[in-house]
Amino acid sequence: MTSSPVTRVAVLGAAGRMGRTVCAAVEEAEALRLVARLDVGDDVASLAGVADVAVDFTVPSATEANVHALLDAGVHAVVGTTGWDEGSLGRVREHAAAYPGLGVLVAPNFAIGAVLAMAFAAKAAPWFESAEVVELHHPDKVDAPSGTARHTAAGIAAARAAAGMPGMPDATAAALDGARGADVDGVRVHAVRLRGLVAHEEILFGNAGELFTIRHDSLDRVSFMPGVVHAVRTVASRPGLTVGLESYLDL
Ligand code: NAP
To answer: How far apart are CA 9 and CA 77, in angstroms?
Structure first.
C-alpha cells in the first residue's frame, strides 16, 4: 500500500448510530480524510486502492465477513462491532497472517476512560482484600452484566491469582437469588438497569479502614471517538490481529 500524509478512511455501517458519529469525527480529525460511507449492500471490495483504513460499526452477523473482505482489499480494519468470539477471532488472525502488512484491531470498548479503568483495576487488585464491580446502564440494554464489566472482573481475578491472593472475605450464608451479583472468576459483578443512565462502571476495592473506587461514565457516543481516531492512526503500524484498545495505549 502507498503511504500518504493523509489517511484515507472508509466507514462501514455509516448510516448507523455509531457509524454516523465516526463519519463526523473522521471529517473533523486532522490528517484523516473520509473517502467512503458504506452500508448494507455496498461492496467492501470497492475500497481496494481507495481507502487505507476502514472502521466497522455494523452488526455482529456482518462484521467478520467485512474484515475478511477488507484484508483481501488491502485495507487495515478498526472494528467496534460486538459479537466476536474465539472462533471468529482465530479465523481473522489466520487470514491476516497472509497479509503481513495489514493490521486489524477488534476493540469491544473504544472509550479510553473505560479501557484505563480496566487497566488501573488490574493494577490495584493485588493490593486490596476485597473487590466488586458495579455496572449501571440504560434499561434497553439486553445483556447483563456488560462485556466491559465482565472483562474488568476477569482482569481483577487474574491479577489476584498471579499475586497468589486467597478468596475474598464473604460470610454470606443465606441470600436471595442474585443478591450477591454474578460470579466472574470469583469477583462479584452487579448490574443496575435504570432509566436515565447511559453506560457507567464502578470498581470498588476495600481493605480494613480503606476504600478505593474507580468510576467511569460514558455519557454520549462521542466518548468513543478519541479511541476510534487513535486506532485509525495506529492500526497500520500494528500488523496482524490485535484485540482490545489497551494494546494501542502503551500502558
Ligand atoms: P446501528 O445503529 O444498528 O448501526 C449498524 C449499521 O450497520 C446500520 O446502519 C446497519 O444497516 C448497518 N449494516 C448492517 N449490515 C451491514 C453490512 N453487511 N455492511 C455494512 N453495514 C451494515 O448500531 P450501532 O448502535 O451503531 O452499533 C453498531 C455496533 O457497534 C454494535 O455491535 C454495537 O454493540 C457496537 N458498539 C461498539 C462500541 C465500542 O466501543 N466498541 C460502542 C458502541 C457500540 P441496517 O440498519 O439497514 O441493518
So the answer is: 10
Condensed to tens digits (0 to 9), the pLDDT of residues 123-171 reads: 999 999 999 999 999 999 888 999 899 999 999 999 999 999 999 999 9
Determine phi and psi for 57, rounding to 5 degrees: -125, 75
- Architecture category of domain 112-219 in CATH: 2-Layer Sandwich (3.30)
| Residue limits of CATH 3.40.50.720 in the chain | 7-106+222-248
Residue corresponding to grid cell 454474578: 182
In terms of Cβ atoms closer than 10 Å to its own Cβ (0-12, 13-18, 19+), residue 99 is: middle
Q: Which amino acid is at 87?
A: G
Q: Tell me: cis bond preceding 145? Omega within 30 of 0 counts.
A: yes
| Whether the Cβ atoms of residue 11 and residue 66 lie closer than 8 Å to each other | no
Q: In the structure, what pLDDT confidence band is assigned to residue 251 with cuts at 50, 70 and 90?
A: confident
Active site residue 141: yes
Distance in angstroms between the alpha carbons of the first and the last residue of the chain: 29
Task: Place 83 in a pLDDT band, splitting at 50, 70 and 90.
Answer: confident
Exactly one of 137, 151, 200, 216 is catalytic; name it. Answer: 137
CA distance to 33, 202, 215, 245, per residue, from 113 (Å) = 26, 12, 9, 11
CB 16 near ligand 1, within 6 Å: yes
Contact 186, 73 (CB under 8 A): no
Query: Given ligand 1 and candidates 39, 79, 151, which is best to mutate, with the most ligand atoms within 8 Å of its CB?
Result: 39
CATH of 7-106+222-248 among 3.40.50.720, 3.40.50.1010, 3.30.460.80, 2.40.110.10: 3.40.50.720
